Each structure stands twice: as C-alpha cells, then as structure tokens.
Amino acid sequence: MAFAVVVRHDRRTMTFISITRLRLRAWRFLPQFAFYATRANAQVRRARGFVGGELLNDRAWTFWTMTAWNERADMRGYIASGAHLTAMPKLLHWCDEASIVHWEQEGHDLPTWDEADCRMRADGRPSKVRHPTVDHAGLRYRTPRTTGAVPLVPLVPRQSPE
C-alpha cells in the first residue's frame, strides 16, 4: 500500500505599503486639491494590485494616504498614469511639506497610523516642493491626529502575485 505525502510550502504573502503626507500651504488650494484627490482616489480603487488603504485628514491642511499593494510595480503603475500623474506637478506649488515612505510587510493588514507616523519619521524622505517650510527637509511635524480615517476599498478583486 502506498501513501502520498503532501508537502505544502508556507509561502508568506508580502504587501508593499506606501504612506504619503501632504500639507497645503494655503486654504485657497483646497478646492483644486479636493478635485484631483477625488479623481486619484477613484483611480486607485480600480488599480491593478491595490489591496486597500485609508485616507487621513489631519490638522492644518495636512492629508495622509496609506495604500497597500501586491507589489511595488503595481504602485508604480498607478502613480505613473491617470489622475495621479496629472496632480503630481501641481503639488509642487500647492504644498509646503510633503513626504513619503515605503516598506514591505507580511500579510495584507494595514499598519496603524501610529506605525505609519513612526516609519515616516524614521525612514521617510521629503518630496520636492517649491515653497518648503523650515521643518520640511527634517520631517519635523506635529504628531498626526490619527482618528477619523476613511477606508479606501478596491473595486476589483484582489489579485495575488504569482
């Protein structure tokens, strides 16, 4: 009598996390920012490899995004097209602070906003802006208000990388 042995490989699922922080330098940029943000949010929800995310409206015209992706290439495809690509050059003028941080983690759970803040301060990098504050380059900013985040849910089923 023969017995079959089934060996399952424990393939860990890695997720690429992207966090951005943008601070508008004046309230007059809010209507245009809201217009482009709405379009970019609709785009990300349809993007290939988008797992989920959140938006956080902080104090003093500061906005955070958290997105999770199957892989870095999926996120790069999103930022290099559509509404996101159109909005990016405008942020150079609208923002006086902007920063970004990326990392990979196991599983598809989103990090907490406290973890996102810690990672931004430890490993983040400032983005180019034309009118930076004195705190911009050193990523010195007030601790974010981490309540009231709005979920970003994909409109297409999650696809696992093969």
List the helices and strands and how they pair.
Layout: E1 14-24, H1 30-46, E2 50-57, E3 62-69, H2 72-79, H3 82-94, E4 95-106, H4 113-123, E5 125-126, E6 150-152
Antiparallel strand pairs: 1-3, 1-4, 2-3, 2-6, 4-5
Brief summary of the model shown:
The protein has 162 residues and is an alpha+beta fold.
Q: What's the end-to-end separation, in Å?
A: 36 Å
* CATH fold label: Alpha-Beta Plaits
Number of helices: 4
The Cα radius of gyration reads 18 Å
Count all strands and give the number: 6
Q: Provide the CATH architecture.
A: 2-Layer Sandwich
> What is the approximate shape?
globular
Strand order of the largest sheet: 5-4-1-3-2-6
Low-confidence stretches: 1-10
Strand content: 25-35%
* Order of SSEs: EHEEHHEHEE
Largest sheet: 6 strands, antiparallel
Could you name the CATH class? Alpha Beta
Alpha-beta content class:
alpha+beta
* Helix fraction bin: 25-40%
For the record, the count of structural domains works out to: 1
Oligomer: single chain
Mean pLDDT: 90
